[in-house]
């Protein structure tokens, strides 16, 4: 296969030509979808001219620049982050079903959020901090429990499931004990939504995600090669376990940051890497297509969420679940047919 | 690569926001023309127009403000209140633009902005307020949040909502009509009702399977009956604040001990007279059939217990009169 | 997976098993009486015993007979169904991690009932049972067809299916809260407040399926030894597998129809039973028949005493018990199959 080798200092990236083309096409799709997202909102369309004028500052539009734009940017960046997190977990576990939402990080974040709702006052700041802490604690717990003679990917997933089951028991117990209104507010948070996201909500998450994704870009290839055999890892000069731990932390960081702002958005992390892999026709999960596909998926889902029951909108998490569910069933049947 | 692009994108945006922010400032100065006053709401002391002309209402404020003939330009959907709306109010509900759904998280900010209101009245409970971006709404128009607290507080809350929307005239008219009717019924039942030890089986909130809801004075199922002299004996074992001061959810096993002293028992039913599942469960229980009040044929269904405005409560009074009529037949 | 440990002489083994089983049933009876004695309303122990021996219709006795006794029976039936279903699934798939709850069988049954109830038409207990069994069958077939190649894979598929179904349910509930509010009761399994529900049909189905499982266990024992051995022993593997699948779906479906999804009972019970059964599937089934109800009764007692007032749904108790069990099982059995 033809490939390009990009050099940056001492590191070099070998990118297949097809992957490069695909990334360009996905990027174009993302921008196009983003533009549609800027045109549409609240059951009304703005003309492309108005949107361009607002973007360039030629015309004032609070709605487009301060309401729709942050939502679109959030969908783009969050989609990338979730797709990348999925790529990490699926590479580490060598399993297409390994994704943060399947192995229980979302449940941990929900436990944190429930704590904020029931014990604290439930402000958005408390929600963000406690959901991130919840996700991190659960990730650490799962990671420690899976350690025995080194880390095994699949065991990580199933132990994640076990912890997930206990957390879900805990979560439903808290919800059953809470006031009806608190339960409703918590349930709405748990559905995951980009509604009402504004620049103030993104000031912190955007740089964090940018940092995480940049680190990931540098370290993803070594970890991917390491899954082929531990010998390769020696060439990178970093211990394999430390590398894996770092990857897990980045994946958890991406998921937790998105969850803190938007609540758990299910299935993007599960579906994006596999769709990206099939589009790029790479043997393993490729990072760039996974991240970009994640953005395409989330943008599409968010547009659908606003349009389906217009003027009422759905939580985007419900739409991603429906899309992801269809994808998963397709994935499962594909796997059966291959046998 | 993508992150770098978005960072640059973000930089360009900052400029755009700065421009937009100045534009925002000028448009706000237009909104605040005319006389204003300071109004005390759940979200603090809010400066609102003295005589609002275009009001958006959500949640519990929807039926209250439709009844009060407030100058509404947009409402959230409010499906749970539909069975109790008069034909006239229902027509008004149907024709008004819906700017939000039942879920507070999915408030459609752009549709609210599109309705161009000069006042937004949010009628959601305090915990749900966190799901709403109040700041964004405030950039459209002054926001007053007046949400439900305890079950009987609808009297004050609807008054505050109507007051904020400048629709007190019609509100007071309905209110005095209700009070007159309640007084009349209180007179009618004067000889029987106040002496009875009453108990109520409710269905509000999440009644876990195997439990029943017992309501005391000033709860959902009882507060209108209280206005005509009914007295629900006893009190909550462990007061939890808010609605948990006036109702509790004991296990069905505690039904005999809880209702042993009751002279008569009332229970919540739907508008069409069918008991909701949580109440049906109690009615089907052998323990219920063994209660003294039930054996004496002193159990009465009460519909419309979710009444939360004066006009709805008037319908609840009529229903009460119908249900309790057997008490007068002696 | 099923270890064939050193076996003592056949007759003494049988005698030992019978003795342990009789002891188990005695313990079960004692726990059942304790479970009937515990509840929100304090009933003196003598009243409980009198209610069982000579009922006179007092309020306390009504509580014992009308509320607690049916609940204890329900716990016994559901526990036996889930425990035996766990044994069948683990033996069939040769997978120590398999369990009706984890594999999404219970979720499938609950989901089918929710949809059925929302669309109308599922009102009678027989219809509920049928729909729940169909849902369980659909989930079983899908999960088994996709995940049968590896133990962990089977678990993953089941969890993925559960995630999809619960996600869809959440969406449906948000879109139309009134219609789908019933799902709240099916999303967390509980034995509370089920005493008036018509339990005859599902309990009968569970009883029949349990008898079927006992009859089938000898052939399953042969099938578990591998295809070649089974053929020489004269067992028709395909037929045995099909019958086992049918029994699993009926057991899990009926248990879910009466109590909602309850996780991990089908995981814990076979693991404990296996230590006693020493590699024999018929005895394993027999032990599951005692241990399942025992675990369920104890969990249900826990659900009533863990909070000062009110109850914890029993599925939450089994969730807390079963999570560590699954982690232990993964660390013990999971590594070999990676």
Automatic annotation (TrEMBL), chain A:
Pfam families: FecCD
Signal sequence interval, chain numbering: none
A Gene Ontology cellular-component term: plasma membrane
GO biological process, one term: siderophore-iron import into cell
Keywords from the named record: Cell membrane, Membrane, Transmembrane, Transmembrane helix, Transport
Source superkingdom: Bacteria
Membrane topology, from the record: Multi-pass membrane protein
Membrane-crossing residue ranges in chain numbering: 20-43, 72-90, 102-120, 127-147, 153-176, 245-272, 284-308, 314-333
Membrane keyword on record: yes
Chief location of this protein within or outside the cell: membrane
GO molecular function, one term: transmembrane transporter activity
Keyword Transmembrane: yes
Record CDD domains: TM_ABC_iron-siderophores_like
Annotated localization: Cell membrane
UniProt record similarity statement: Belongs to the binding-protein-dependent transport system permease family. FecCD subfamily.
Name of the protein this chain belongs to: Iron complex transport system permease protein
Source organism (scientific name): Tamaricihabitans halophyticus
TrEMBL record, chain B:
PROSITE patterns, alphabetized: FE_B12_PBP (PS50983), PROKAR_LIPOPROTEIN (PS51257)
Main location: other
Protein origin, superkingdom: Bacteria
Keywords assigned: Signal, Transport
Residues in the signal sequence: 1-20
Domain Fe/B12 periplasmic-binding, first and last residues per copy: 54-330
Compartments where found: Cell envelope
GO biological process assignments: iron coordination entity transport
Pfam families: Peripla_BP_2
Protein family according to the UniProt entry: Belongs to the bacterial solute-binding protein 8 family.
Protein's name in the database: Iron complex transport system substrate-binding protein
Organism, as annotated: Tamaricihabitans halophyticus
Higher taxonomy: Bacteria, Bacillati, Actinomycetota, Actinomycetes, Pseudonocardiales
UniProtKB/TrEMBL annotation, chain C:
Record keywords, A-Z: Cell membrane, Membrane, Transmembrane, Transmembrane helix, Transport
Gene3D superfamilies named in the record: ABC transporter involved in vitamin B12 uptake, BtuC (1.10.3470.10)
One BP annotation, GO: siderophore-iron import into cell
Membrane topology designation: Multi-pass membrane protein
Localization of this protein: Cell membrane
Similarity comment: Belongs to the binding-protein-dependent transport system permease family. FecCD subfamily.
Species: Tamaricihabitans halophyticus
A Gene Ontology cellular-component term: plasma membrane
An MF annotation (GO) of this entry: transmembrane transporter activity
Protein name: Iron complex transport system permease protein
UniProt xrefs under InterPro entries: ABC_BtuC-like, ABC_transptr_permease_BtuC
Pfam name, any one: FecCD
Residue stretches spanning the membrane: 16-40, 72-89, 101-123, 129-147, 154-176, 196-216, 242-269, 281-299, 311-330
Main location: membrane
PANTHER family: FE(3+) DICITRATE TRANSPORT SYSTEM PERMEASE PROTEIN FECC-RELATED (PTHR30472:SF1), FERRIC ENTEROBACTIN TRANSPORT SYSTEM PERMEASE PROTEIN (PTHR30472)
């Amino acid at each position: 296969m033809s490939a390009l080798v990009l050099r940056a200092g001492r590191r070099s990236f070998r990118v297949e030509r097809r992957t490069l083309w695909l990334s360009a096409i996905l990027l174009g799709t993302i921008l196009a979808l983003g533009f549609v997202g800027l045109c549409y909102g609240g059951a009304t369309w703005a003309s492309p001219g108005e949107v361009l004028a607002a973007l360039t500052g030629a015309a004032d539009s609070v709605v487009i620049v301060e309401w729709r734009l942050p939502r679109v940017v959030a969908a783009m960046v969050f989609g990338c982050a979730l797709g990348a997190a999925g790529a990490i977990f699926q590479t580490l576990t060598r399993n297409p079903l390994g994704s943060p939402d399947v192995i229980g990080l979302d449940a941990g974040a929900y436990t944190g959020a429930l704590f904020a709702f029931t014990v604290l006052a439930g402000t958005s700041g408390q929600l963000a901090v406690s959901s991130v802490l919840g996700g991190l604690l659960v990730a650490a717990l799962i990671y420690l429990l899976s350690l025995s003679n080194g880390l095994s990917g699949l065991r990580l997933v199933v132990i994640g499931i076990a912890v997930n089951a206990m957390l879900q028991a805990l979560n439903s117990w808290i919800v059953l004990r809470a006031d009806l209104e608190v339960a409703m507010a918590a349930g709405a948070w748990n559905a995951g939504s980009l509604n009402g996201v504004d620049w103030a909500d993104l000031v912190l998450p955007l740089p964090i995600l940018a940092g995480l994704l940049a680190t990931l870009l540098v370290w993803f290839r070594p970890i991917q090669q390491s899954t082929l055999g531990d010998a390769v890892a020696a060439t990178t000069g970093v211990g394999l376990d430390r590398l894996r731990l770092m990857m897990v932390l980045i994946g958890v960081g991406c998921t937790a940051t998105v969850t803190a702002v938007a609540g758990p958005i299910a299935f993007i992390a599960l579906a994006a890497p596999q769709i990206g892999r099939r589009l790029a026709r790479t043997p393993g999960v490729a990072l760039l297509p996974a991240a970009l596909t994640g953005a395409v998926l989330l943008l599409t889902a968010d547009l659908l969420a606003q349009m389906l029951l217009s003027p009422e909108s759905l939580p985007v998490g419900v739409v991603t679940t429906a899309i992801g569910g269809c994808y998963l069933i397709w994935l499962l049947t594909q796997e059966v047919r291959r046998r | 690569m993508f992150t770098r692009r978005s960072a640059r994108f973000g930089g360009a945006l900052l400029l755009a926001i700065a421009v937009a922010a100045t534009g925002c400032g000028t448009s706000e100065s237009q909104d605040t023309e005319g006389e204003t006053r300071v109004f005390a709401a759940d979200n603090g002391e809010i400066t609102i127009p003295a005589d609002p002309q275009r009001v958006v209402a959500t949640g519990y404020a929807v039926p209250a403000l439709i009844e009060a003939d407030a100058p509404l330009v947009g409402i959230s959907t409010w499906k749970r209140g539909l069975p109790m709306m008069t034909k006239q109010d229902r027509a008004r509900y149907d024709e008004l633009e819906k700017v939000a759904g039942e879920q507070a998280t999915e408030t459609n900010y752009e549709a609210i902005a599109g309705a161009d209101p000069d006042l937004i009245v949010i009628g959601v409970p305090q915990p749900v307020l966190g799901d709403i971006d109040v700041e964004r709404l405030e950039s459209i128009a002054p926001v007053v949040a007046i949400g439900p607290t305890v079950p009987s507080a609808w009297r004050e809350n609807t008054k505050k909502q109507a007051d904020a929307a400048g629709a007190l005239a019609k509100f007071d008219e309905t209110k005095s009509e209700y009070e007159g009717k309640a007084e009349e019924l209180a007179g009618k039942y004067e000889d029987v009702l106040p002496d009875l030890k009453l108990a109520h089986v409710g269905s509000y909130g999440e009644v876990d399977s195997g439990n029943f809801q017992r309501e005391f004075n000033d709860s959902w199922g009882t507060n209108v009956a209280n206005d005509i002299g009914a007295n629900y004996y006893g009190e909550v074992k462990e007061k939890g604040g808010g609605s948990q001061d006036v109702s509790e959810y004991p296990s069905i096993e505690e039904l005999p001990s809880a209702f042993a002293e009751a002279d008569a028992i009332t229970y919540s039913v739907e508008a069409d007279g069918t008991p909701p599942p949580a109440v049906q469960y109690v009615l089907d229980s052998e323990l219920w059939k063994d209660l003294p009040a039930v054996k004496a044929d002193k159990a009465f269904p009460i519909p419309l217990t979710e009444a939360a405005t004066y006009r709805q409560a008037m319908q609840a009074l009529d229903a009460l009169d119908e249900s309790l009529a057997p008490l007068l037949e002696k | 997976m099923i270890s064939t440990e050193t076996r003592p002489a056949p007759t003494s083994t049988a005698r030992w098993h019978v003795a342990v089983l009789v002891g188990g049933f005695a313990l079960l009876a004692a726990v059942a009486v304790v479970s009937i004695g515990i509840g929100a309303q304090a009933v003196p122990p003598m009243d409980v015993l009198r209610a069982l021996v000579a009922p006179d219709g007092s309020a306390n006795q009504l509580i014992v007979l009308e509320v607690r006794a049916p609940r204890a029976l329900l716990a016994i039936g559901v526990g036996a169904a889930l425990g035996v279903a766990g044994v069948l699934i683990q033996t069939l798939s040769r997978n120590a991690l398999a369990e009706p709850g984890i594999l999404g069988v219970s979720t499938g049954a609950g989901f089918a009932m929710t949809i059925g109830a929302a669309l109308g038409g599922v009102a009678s207990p027989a219809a509920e049972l049928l729909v729940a069994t169909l849902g369980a069958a659909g989930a079983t077939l899908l999960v088994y067809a996709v995940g049968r190649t590896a133990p962990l894979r089977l678990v993953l598929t089941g969890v993925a299916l559960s995630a999809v179904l619960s996600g869809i349910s959440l969406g449906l509930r948000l879109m139309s809260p009134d219609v789908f509010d019933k799902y709240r009761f099916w999303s967390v399994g509980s034995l509370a407040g089920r005493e008036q529900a018509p339990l005859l049909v599902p309990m009968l189905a569970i009883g029949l399926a349990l008898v079927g499982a006992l009859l089938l266990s000898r052939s399953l024992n042969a099938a578990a030894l591998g295809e070649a051995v089974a053929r020489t022993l004269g067992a028709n593997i395909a037929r045995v597998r099909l019958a086992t699948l049918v029994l699993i779906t009926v057991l899990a479906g009926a248990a879910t129809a009466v109590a909602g999804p309850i996780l991990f009972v089908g995981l814990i019970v076979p693991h404990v039973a296996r230590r006693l059964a020493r590699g024999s599937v018929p005895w394993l089934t027999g032990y599951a028949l005692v241990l399942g109800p025992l675990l369920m009764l104890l969990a249900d007692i826990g659900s009533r005493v863990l909070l000062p007032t009110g109850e914890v749904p029993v599925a939450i108790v089994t969730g807390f018990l079963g999570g560590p069990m699954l982690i232990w099982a993964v660390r013990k059995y999971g590594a070999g199959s990676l």
